[in-house]
Amino acid sequence: MRRRDLLGVFAASTLGSQAKPWARPTTALKGTAGRLKQSACRWPYRGIPLPEFCRAAAKIGLAGIDLLGADEWQQVRDCGLVCSMGYPVSRRDFIATGFNDRANHAMLLRELEATIPEAARHGVPNVITMFGNRRGKSDAEAIDNCVAGLNQIKALAEAQGVTVCLELLNSKVDHADYQGDHTAFGVAVMKAVNSPRVKLLYDIYHMQIMEGDVIRTIRDNREYIAHFHTGGVPGRHELDGTQELNWHAVAAAIADTGFQGFVAHEFTPTRDPLTSLSEAVAVCTV
Length: 286
Hints:
Strand content: 5-15%
CATH superfamily: Divalent-metal-dependent TIM barrel enzymes
Strand order of the largest sheet: 3-2-1-8-7-6-5-4
Structural class: alpha/beta
Radius of gyration: 18 Å
Helix content: 25-40%
Number of strands: 8
Shape: globular
Order of helices and strands: EHEHEHEHHEHEHHEHEH
């Protein structure tokens, strides 16, 4: 199941047969050791009620839950965690409709203007938005459009202390026609906007598919990245020996940059979900 299938229906997904019963993680952690704050995206664990998922997440060492609607932020805070990345809206075309098209700006800015102060009040450090689908636009045109739109929201984000994160996604497997499908595109936008509160969400799964060279890319562009997502390639499954990347090395490279944000796990478990999540936390503890 892909995240795009869940956008707009926050409360209506399931893990199917893998989600029940919810076994206790077999990898016991007393808290996230090392240098990275880790969280987990909510959508792969929708079959587990949020309060129960929060309790389990805290036990295995997570500091937050990622990709939540505003109606869920307080529930997470009540469990002693933080929503590490919030959605500004529930909309089915959320990924495809982005800042690369000026026709979208009024709607996107209205959504962010309403959400950013609310995020600040709930201690949500990041709010997600998208570059959007190409629909025939050149990269040069799209970059100009993104800069024009994001320049209109950066002052509010800076004043509220909330980072607007634009996600890099693959257009090869999961999100056909998505324009922000290479790091260079996203970095060009970030350089032009030049704000400490407008940054990239670097999704390692997506960028491994599109361009590889993950560790060097992270090192070279660390000042433009505020958030990371994980997910094994191929298949977007566990961070284990079936995958292309050495996740412990990737995590160490992120930590070595002095990164202070969140690394959020975003993979679909093929085994007991909480055990798989616990193992991912362990492998990324550096």
